[in-house]
Amino acid sequence: MESLMSILIGVFFAIGTYLILTKSLLRIILGTSIISHGVHLLIITMGGVKAGGPPLLGLGSTSFTDALPQALILTAIVINFATTAIFLVLSYRSYKVLGTDDTAQMRGNEDE
Amino acid sequence: MNNIVILPIIIPMILGLIMVIFRRRIMLHRVLSILSMTGTGGAAAYLIYQVKHEGIQTLQLGGWEAPFGVSMVVDMLSALLLITTSIVALFCVIYAFKSIGREREEHYFYPLFLFLITGVNGSFITGDVFNLFVCFEVMLISSYALITLGGKSIQLRESIKYVLVNIIASFLFLIAIAYLYAVTGTLNMAHLSERVAEVGQGGLMTAVAIIFLFVFSLKAGLFLFFWLPGSYSAPPTAVAAVFAALLTKVGIYAIYRFFTLVFYHEPQVTHLIIGIMAAVTMVLGAMGAIAYKDIKKILTYNVVVGVGFILAGLASFTDAGMTGSIYYLMHDMVIKALIFIIGGVIIAIAGTSNLDDMSGLIQTHPYLGWMFFITALSISGIPPLSGFIGKVYITEGTFTSGYYWLGAIGLITSLMVLFSVMKIFMNSFWGETILSEEMEKGTTRGVMFPIVALVMLTIGLGLGAELLHDYVEIAVEGLMNPSLYIEAVLGGNAQ
């Protein structure tokens, strides 16, 4: 299971990196979004994907799943949601003000 | 257990939230901002007193004992940084009263500013790696909003790079946390320190350490500062001043915390890498500062040089180097805010940031000119101003540990820094007065108070270095002996 997840995470990172390296702003944002999924999967894989009972007493399980990585991912997802939202708004506003979503044309000049 | 530990986080947060409700009451915003900075300053001062007399203060949130809950820890380094942050932020916000403009004030400038301070203070206080990530994000999201507030085209253009770089840095931070958790099974810093000491810092741990170093270097502008000059010259002066004074320092603090508390077993690898990065940062930053003729660019490259110099102290990993770094860190926070504010005033008066288009301001603004002169001397470490004592100790530290090249680069670059700020002084204040008072685009009215106060502070930090020495010594002792920190956080639970 872990090795399968590792390959999946690798694919996510490859796609995300490719998208971030393109010129269109929207693709860059999608790229960050995809990398974030890779990161979240990485956290859960690193915590150990193993069968075990829920970490509650009194259920009679002998082994427990580590709940901490899931709490971490939950927080990370919320934060990533916020940054993606702000990034989308920012790119929309810059598209309106600068008139382009091509990062190559956003260099500007000295006289501004 | 000490509830005061949490105050520097919740005071700005709650007051900021109150402000959001009363959007148009600008006077209320201003009063609450000042209250919040004085409040956190007071809490920090009291914490310094407590840390000095009773040792490191901790708070286990929700009553969950470490290492299971989130710990908040204030040691002397955190407390000193907290009080410096409060003072610098107070003067930046007073400067913003007159300079930021009604439009931005009505669009939540002050709440965003306070949320930024919440994140900064949180990063200084937290004793948990994941919580550090959260505090970083609080700080960064506020900074995304602050850097774009106003929506000029240069701000939007630069902020896209800034946001993208920081988002990727945050991903790397999460990756590093995941690896760390996989190897050690804990995220509490004191517990981490204990576990890493137990199993030894092998190749795997060192690799994780390097990922953390990479992440924090991106935030601090250590070597990976390619985003910094553009982003810091885009926003209005009050924002740029607080960014230059505080944001990079949080990255530096994180590097300090990690490489003195957790990853301190292999200094010949990690600290040497930090040293090399610091040296390259200083050289490139100083070259940038000399090369440009634009005040904003010169000042932002000076920020980069400062980062390199502070971390040279860590690279030396000696008592003297650490002492110097803490002195210099506090000095740098004050002086960077100050020089950005003065630079902003000069630009406002001349209506341009190009040095070729201004001259002779000393005729019409003698006080501003001499303030800038004092600042320029202080930034390059001329005694008796505040930069001197830190430079002496850091240089001594690098020489003691045998990194002669690092010390030499530090001294040479401070000469280059002196040249770069003197270039601003000579071009803008000397020469023929080409700007009569009627033609000036801006004014110094109302902004002299924060400038004078910060100049007094830099002189005070220089002359009062002896008084401060007791406190810095405690901070260094805490940094060099991780057992003190572990004992304070884990207490009876220490294995």
UniProtKB/TrEMBL annotation, chain A:
One of its GO terms (cellular component) is plasma membrane. The keyword Metal-binding does not apply. This is Na(+)/H(+) antiporter subunit C. It is a multi-pass membrane protein. The lineage of its organism: Bacteria, Bacillati, Bacillota, Bacilli, Bacillales. It is found in: Cell membrane. It comes from Cytobacillus horneckiae. It holds the Pfam family Oxidored_q2. Its main location: membrane. Keywords: Cell membrane, Membrane, Transmembrane, Transmembrane helix.
Automatic annotation (TrEMBL), chain B:
The chain crosses the membrane at residues 6-22, 31-49, 69-96, 108-125, 131-150, 162-182, 202-226, 238-259, 271-292, 299-317, 337-355, 367-390, 402-426, 447-465. Its main location: membrane. GO terms for biological process: ATP synthesis coupled electron transport. It is found in: Cell membrane; Membrane. Keywords: Antiport, Cell membrane, Membrane, Transmembrane, Transmembrane helix, Transport. The keyword Iron-sulfur does not apply. It is a multi-pass membrane protein. It comes from the Bacteria. InterPro entries: CPA3_Na-H_Antiporter_D, NADH_UbQ_OxRdtase, ND/Mrp_TM. GO terms for molecular function: antiporter activity; NADH dehydrogenase (ubiquinone) activity. GO terms for cellular component: plasma membrane. Residues 127-416 form the NADH:quinone oxidoreductase/Mrp antiporter transmembrane domain. It holds the Pfam family Proton_antipo_M. PANTHER family: NA(+)_H(+) ANTIPORTER SUBUNIT D1, NADH DEHYDROGENASE. Belongs to the CPA3 antiporters (TC 2.A.63) subunit D family. This is Na+/H+ antiporter subunit D. It comes from Cytobacillus horneckiae. The lineage of its organism: Bacteria, Bacillati, Bacillota, Bacilli, Bacillales.
